[in-house]
Amino acid sequence: MAETVSEGDNESGVRRVPLGEIEPARSRHMWTRSAVGVAESGDLVVTGEWDGTVIARDTDSLETRWTVGHPDHAVGIASLEGSGAIVVAGRGDTGTIAAYDAETGDQRWRYDTAADVGEAVKDTVFYLPYVVALETGMDADGDERLYAAARRYERDGDVRRWHSTVYAFDGDGEVCWTYETDASPIALDLDADGERLAVGYNRCMGDHDTGLVVLEAGSGNLAWTWDPGTEGDRRVGDVSFDGESIAVSSHGDKRGYLLGPGGAERWRVDLAVETEIDGETLYAYPNHAYAHDGRVAFVTGNTYAKEGRETEGRHPNEHRVAAFDADGDLLWDDAVRGFVHGLAADGDRLVAPCAQNFRVRDPDTHAVRRFDLESGADACERIDGIATAAAVADDTIAAIEEPVEYHDEGETRGEYALRVGSLT
């Protein structure tokens, strides 16, 4: 069993468990290599590692409850509370979704998405079948459901293609329905009533040409669609329900939207739109959206130049979190400073695992930052490595630290570790 190491002063109460070895990240952020989940009850923390190792630990003691080997890189985790199962999403040859007993780790069921999206045609990470999102909840009849989105990329000369499938599973792993397209899904969200499932597509290169699809959760039938209406294949970065409204971060025009039923636009805000600075046209992608109780937060990512990916300039709204009220008026904004791989949220609480800022290469950007959706910055825990994943439930916050070695320094900062603390 891995050694548990306490860190910080008594007030912080952050505990750390080494996770073994992983290649240090470099200046630019890497693909998703780790995952973490906290059971809704808060008593179990589960980590997924790049080598497929999945470990469930008791939240209080951090003692290992069980360990399993997932068939693929373990890059996503969700819990089916009613079924007492932990679901792991994979990126690899099979693109496996598997459910493991929360108490014992025994495999309950397994589904290989490569059977639908196809097998990799090239032996590189980007071509592997990839389960990009998991979402759990109750349907309109009160039955527990798991929703998942899987995709695969391929390229033949100048022709680029995506193959993707959205799934609904029951608690026993039976497929209730599927929805297939030739676009690249990036995000899922289920409304509070379990009646609608929103699917965000960030790359649309083929016949499917819309960034947001809303499906009937019970049947998988199409309810309505929306698109930012921009040129090119970039469309949506994230989606989040709040009642009948849906917050959408747009990769197409770098704005944030709040939509009503049927896709009616309630408001839109500029987030990191194209801006000319010192002769360059710069922008940043709004990668994350979270809506709750009449408020919406958006998080932006790295700066890019319209004429090429290399630039010395920085967009003024890169690596920024901004929250808005029900009318689209700004409540507050703050810097996250580093790239946020995934935003964790629970009610009014936001947790941003911040990784490197490759244009600045400042280790002070490495942190787990916390925000209150109404009032803004709440707390910041700086770490030596980069924070690449986070989860929050009940009073527990868990994050993954990965080592990083900037290309022009030669020093490895941090280590591969699980960090667990309390929100209070």
Residues in helices, as a percent range: under 10%
Mean pLDDT: 94
Strand order of the largest sheet: 1-2-36-33-32
What best-fitting shape do the alpha-carbon axes yield? globular
Supply the number of helical segments: 1
The major beta sheet can be summarized as:
5 strands, antiparallel
User: If you compute it from the alpha carbons, what radius of gyration comes out, rounded to the nearest whole angstrom?
Assistant: 20 Å
Keywords:
single chain, 424 residues, mainly beta, five-stranded antiparallel beta sheet, 1 helix, 36 strands, 1% helix, disordered N terminus
Explain this structure.
InterPro entries: PQQ_b-propeller_rpt, PQQ_rpt_dom, Quinoprotein_ADH-like_sf, WD40/YVTN_repeat-like_dom_sf. Pfam families: PQQ_2. This is PQQ-binding-like beta-propeller repeat protein. It comes from Haloarchaeobius amylolyticus. Strand 5 and strand 6 (64-69) form a beta hairpin. The protein contains 1 helix and 36 strands. It has 424 residues and is mostly beta strands. The strands form 9 sheets. Strands 1-2-36-33-32 form a 5-stranded antiparallel beta sheet, with no helix packed on it. A 5-stranded antiparallel beta sheet has the order 23-24-25-26-27, with no helix packed on it.
